[in-house]
Amino acid sequence: MQADRKPQFWTPGDWNALFGFGTNILVNLLVLTGLLQFVLKMPAPIIFGRILPALGLMMLLSTLYYAWLAWQLASKTGRSDVCALPSGISVPHMFVVTFVIMLPIASMTGDPIKGWEAGLVWVFFQSFILMIGGFIAPYIRAITPRAALLGTLAGVSVAFISMRPAIEIFLTPAIGLVCFAIILVSWFGGLRYPRGIPAGLVAIAFGMAVAWGSALLGLDVGGLSLAKLGAAFATFGFSLPLPAVDHVFSGFSYLGIILVTAIPFGIYDLVEAMDNVESAEAAGDHYLTTRVLTADGVVSLIGCLMGNPFINAVYIGHPGWKAMGGRIGYSAATGLVVAALCWFGIVALLLALVPIVAISPILLYIGMLIGAQAFQTTPVKHAPAIILALTPHLAAWAKVLIDGALGAAGTNAATVGLDKMANMGVLYHGLEVMGGGAILSGLVLGAIAVFVIDRKFAHAAAFAAAGAVLTYFGLMHGESIGIGNGLGVTPSISLGYAMVAGFLLLCARLPASVLAPSMPEAKLEPAE
């Protein structure tokens, strides 16, 4: 029988996926280390002796588990094309826990260790939300249209995965554009490099050659230097993760600040994981949402208790790694590599050795692929719903840029004045409201649009009503929990959703004779 065929743990395509996914994880690891060093001013012994070793353990457990799930699926189905789910540090939460939790508390107390402890408590609560939510998520996924799930995921992909790498490519085009072309012609164009060398490795090697060649000539093309490289060797040493339970309980003194964001972002994790499992299923691999979310919660909790203040998540990008040949082994190999980098203190050396712009094209490729999947695996008539699901993420991205620019100038939107900004065409409050809780807002708006397109008005009304409830409690169009307008939640928008739900229910009761004839589903044809 076909199902009795033993799956292959490693295939030639796993090399491509290892270098692609591994460099993706490496970028996040380097950014995370930079945040700890230069933003939080965390002592080096805490970064390289406690946090990174614990993070390495979490990554190892996560990637081994998802490799095992893929092995089980391949064994059960007899298929040779099963691809393991990618997983790693949750990138949005990496910035949230840094700037919303750890940095304010570190600044308030004058002690970055206190900020670290508060971050541990934040992950502690997030972990339990994931574990509990794992038993609810399958029901939500069953009633939510694919276009809504993948549309809001495409929003994350376009705004928070694709845009920054694309900008970095054009800031250093001598490396970025060429590395992007190296990847593009291989992973989209099918070109094979000599001896089967992975395109990601070719791109990184080219970027390093240009960056170090320019550095030796006294030019600064990739931001590298011998001085930075020499200083990085000071972090070498072997550090295994150690329990940090005492630090976790010390952070409970900041519980009020932590819960305001832990609950809504825990729900964000829930929806994001559902989206990514849906993305994997669209690519042909069916994984149980409950097992995925429970695993994310468990490994995040273990990492937290060992000192890691960053949560684990199933990653966006499964179809990309599968398309380039990734199967089972790439996941486990990535975890082993990351654990070695973290336990031996090699991360700082890599930060000084590899130009980030050489890795940026890989992230852009993944963003392109995930954005395209939303349109490729859903009915063409649902395309407008996908565009609608994108918009809250674009608003959130724009707000992040504005806040960053104003913060660099030592001010903020309130000080500048919302009216003055509006007169210049910047509707800051609109971005703030629309972009708050973007992953949920995009899902709800996308689902309403899909059901309206399909003329299932009662279903659309149900999602509008859900939007009213979620908004009223601050889980959409705001990122703080409350009732009414007590904590910055927007009751007027909640009322708007409720009115839309009522209108859609009236539409559901109308006779079919008042509806225009259904239009045949459009087909995308090449221009003559």
Question: Care to describe what's here?
Answer:
Mean pLDDT is about 85; it is low at about 485-490 and about 525-528. The protein contains 23 helices and two strands. It folds into two domains: about 10-375, no CATH class; about 380-510, no CATH class. Helices cover about 70% and strands about 0% of the residues. It starts with 11 loop residues before the first helix and ends in a 20-residue tail after the last helix. It has about 525 residues and is an all-alpha fold. The chain has a two-stranded antiparallel sheet. Helix 6 packs across helix 7 (about 175-185), helix 6 (about 145-170) packs across helix 21 (about 440-455) and helix 21 packs antiparallel against helix 22. It has helices spanning about 10-40, 45-75, 90-110, 110-135, 135-145, 145-170, 175-185, 200-215, 225-230, 245-250, 255-280, 290-305, 320-325, 330-345, 345-355, 360-375, 385-410, 415, 420-425, 430-435, 440-455, 455-470, 490-510, and strands at about 85-90, 310-315. The longest helix is centred in the first third of the chain and has 34 residues, at about 45-75. The chain is globular.
